[in-house]
């Protein structure tokens, strides 16, 4: 048996617990990230390992071709939809944490769309949005609103709104559940004291609820921003990015696998990462400034 000192034993235990997580992180996070950065500086086609170092030529191409960033305007639809989704998620969370009969059933009903696979969700909404036999146009016709019937997936003016609505419908339940968890952690004594002081429902929400869930709200906005910038599955499965629905990630995937330019696609992925980090920093600085300690 080895007689190690307490300090040595402590270091061995810490090393034993940290070695595997650090190794997995290096293998599946940091190494791929560094490889992505290296590939972005090459002309790799994705076939074999023949590649030439071309420096920042891929980045120059990205910033000199307007069509590369033109797809970001479609990501804006998902960002706006995501912000609306957060508002509705918080609204339903506030209602479903109160004294409402059957609230557990409503929670399940609103959370269920998140459980559905994205492909199944898109197939379902294809039947909703279909011009001829879609349930949405059928409902509008039954209500006498034939003038509202549209080619929801064929009209470039509304197709991105239709796709953004699918994203809102799918992910609102998850945000609602997270908000419910945050609201349930607020001590009820605060609301009772506010009621005794004559505070209205809006005043309770503004001065008790919002400050108490500030950290969760910040997380929701960050996830909404990153999710909007990384939108891929819904527009890709629905239309393969056709009819002016291509997002930045779809364009990146097409560049890599359709045009076999993995070097340029890697550079686009790095640029997207920088954009996400930049927006997160701006959000934290402008919307959630840390309170100065007196």
TrEMBL record:
<feature type="domain" description="ABC transmembrane type-1">
    <location>
        <begin position="71"/>
        <end position="283"/>
    </location>
</feature>
<keyword id="KW-0812">Transmembrane</keyword>
<dbReference type="Pfam" id="PF00528">
    <property type="entry name" value="BPD_transp_1"/>
</dbReference>
<feature type="transmembrane region" description="Helical">
    <location>
        <begin position="158"/>
        <end position="183"/>
    </location>
</feature>
<keyword id="KW-0813">Transport</keyword>
<keyword id="KW-1133">Transmembrane helix</keyword>
<feature type="transmembrane region" description="Helical">
    <location>
        <begin position="216"/>
        <end position="242"/>
    </location>
</feature>
<dbReference type="GO" id="GO:0055085">
    <property type="term" value="P:transmembrane transport"/>
</dbReference>
<feature type="transmembrane region" description="Helical">
    <location>
        <begin position="108"/>
        <end position="129"/>
    </location>
</feature>
<protein>
    <submittedName>
        <fullName>Sugar ABC transporter permease</fullName>
    </submittedName>
</protein>
<comment type="similarity">
    <text>Belongs to the binding-protein-dependent transport system permease family.</text>
</comment>
<dbReference type="InterPro" id="IPR000515">
    <property type="entry name" value="MetI-like"/>
</dbReference>
<feature type="transmembrane region" description="Helical">
    <location>
        <begin position="76"/>
        <end position="96"/>
    </location>
</feature>
<keyword id="KW-0472">Membrane</keyword>
<dbReference type="InterPro" id="IPR035906">
    <property type="entry name" value="MetI-like_sf"/>
</dbReference>
<keyword id="KW-1003">Cell membrane</keyword>
<dbReference type="InterPro" id="IPR051393">
    <property type="entry name" value="ABC_transporter_permease"/>
</dbReference>
<feature type="transmembrane region" description="Helical">
    <location>
        <begin position="12"/>
        <end position="31"/>
    </location>
</feature>
<dbReference type="GO" id="GO:0005886">
    <property type="term" value="C:plasma membrane"/>
</dbReference>
<feature type="transmembrane region" description="Helical">
    <location>
        <begin position="262"/>
        <end position="282"/>
    </location>
</feature>
């Amino acid at each position: 048996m080895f007689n190690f000192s307490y300090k040595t034993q402590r270091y061995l235990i810490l090393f034993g617990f940290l070695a595997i997580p650090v190794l997995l992180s290096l293998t599946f996070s940091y190494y791929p990230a560094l490889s992505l950065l290296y590939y972005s500086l090459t002309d790799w086609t994705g076939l074999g390992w023949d590649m030439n170092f071309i420096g920042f030529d891929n980045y120059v191409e990205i910033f000199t071709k307007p069509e590369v960033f033109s797809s970001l305007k479609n990501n804006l639809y998902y960002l706006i939809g995501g912000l609306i989704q957060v508002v509705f998620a918080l609204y339903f969370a506030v209602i479903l944490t109160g004294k409402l009969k059957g609230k557990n059933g409503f929670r399940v009903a609103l959370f269920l769309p998140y459980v559905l696979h994205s492909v199944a969700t898109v197939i379902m909404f294809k039947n909703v949005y279909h011009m001829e036999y879609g349930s949405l146009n059928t409902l509008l016709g039954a209500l006498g609103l034939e003038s509202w019937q549209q080619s929801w997936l064929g009209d470039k003016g509304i197709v991105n709104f239709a796709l953004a609505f699918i994203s809102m419908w799918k992910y609102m339940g998850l945000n609602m559940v997270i908000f419910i968890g945050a609201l349930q952690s607020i001590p009820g004594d605060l609301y009772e004291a506010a009621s005794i002081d004559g505070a209205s429902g809006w005043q309770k929400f503004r001065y008790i609820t919002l400050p108490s869930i500030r950290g969760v709200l910040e997380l929701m906005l960050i996830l909404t921003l990153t999710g909007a910038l990384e939108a891929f599955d819904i527009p890709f499965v629905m239309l393969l990015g056709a009819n002016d629905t291509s997002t930045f990630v779809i364009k990146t995937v097409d560049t890599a696998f359709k045009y076999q330019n993995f070097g340029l696609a890697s550079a686009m992925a790095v640029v997207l990462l920088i954009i996400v980090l930049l927006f997160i920093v701006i959000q934290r600085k402008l919307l959630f400034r840390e309170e100065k300690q007196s």
